[in-house]
Specification:
The protein has 195 residues and is an alpha+beta fold. The chain folds into 2 domains: 9-65, no CATH class; 71-181, 3-layer Sandwich (Rieske Iron-sulfur Protein), CATH 2.102.10.10. The protein contains 2 helices and 10 strands; from the N terminus they run ααββββββββββ. The chain has helices spanning 23-31, 34-65; strands at residues 71-77, 85-92, 105-114, 117-122, 133-135, 140-142, 149-151, 156-158, 170-173, 176-181. The strands form 3 sheets. Strands 5-6-7-8 form a 4-stranded antiparallel β-sheet, with no helix packed on it. It has a 3-stranded antiparallel β-sheet with strand order 1-10-9, with no helix packed on it. It has a 3-stranded antiparallel β-sheet with strand order 2-3-4, with no helix packed on it. Strand 6 (140-142) and strand 7 (149-151) form a beta hairpin.
Length: 195
């Protein structure tokens, strides 16, 4: 008897034992090592990490690379805004991309007090940015998402918003109303500009 351990029939390289298949498949399975599996797994994880890191890097350096100045957008003639009324006005977002479709349009509320005295409000609620609606009967702006309510002058009336509505900077040129647009307001950048 041979003192060495006999080779099981399934691992016999002669192809004569076991499952009746060819010896090529058995040699290929036997040639896979732990080191090879770890190297392939490591390469796949590194590739997945690289793919996941690309959007993160773009998010961090994107605003630096394409910082754009706000633009003055014409939203209509002064005659379009009657005194003591608040109107919803749609305009094209100057930072629009070709694939934006309908979302490339934005809106604001223009409130004409008297003469050339105006207030121009962002349509976005100061809480989470939902679009507010103007109700002339009650003289209130209301947010349908979480119940934020604002007075007609944009001041906070009730609900979860931390402040009043954001106001766009505006100017009047040659009988036209222009608003400074290009980014959404935040608590740190309220878009209000002193003229």
């Amino acid at each position: 008897m041979n003192s060495e351990h006999p080779t099981p029939p399934c691992c016999n390289s002669s192809g004569s034992g076991g499952h009746g298949g060819s010896g090529d498949a058995e040699v290929t399975l036997a040639s896979i090592t732990r080191r090879g599996i770890l190297l392939v797994s490591g390469a796949l994880f590194a590739l997945a990490g690289l793919i996941l890191a690309i959007p993160l890097v773009g998010y961090i350096i994107g605003p630096i690379m394409r910082r754009k100045e706000d633009q003055w957008v014409d939203i209509g003639a002064l005659e379009d805004f009657p005194e003591n009324q608040t109107l919803l006005v749609d305009f094209e977002d100057p930072d629009r991309r070709p694939w934006d479709g309908m979302t490339g349009k934005t809106s604001c509320y223009v409130r004409r007090l008297q003469g050339e005295n105006f207030q121009v409000f962002s349509i976005n609620c100061a809480h989470l940015g939902c679009p507010v609606h103007w109700f002339p009967e009650s003289g209130l702006f209301m947010c349908p998402c979480h119940g934020g309510v604002y007075y007609e002058d944009g001041g906070r009336a009730s609900g979860p918003p931390p402040r009043g509505l954001y106001e766009y900077a505006f100017r009047l040129e040659k009988g036209r109303m222009l608003v400074r647009a290009g980014h959404l307001p935040t608590l740190q950048d309220t878009m209000k500009e002193t003229s």
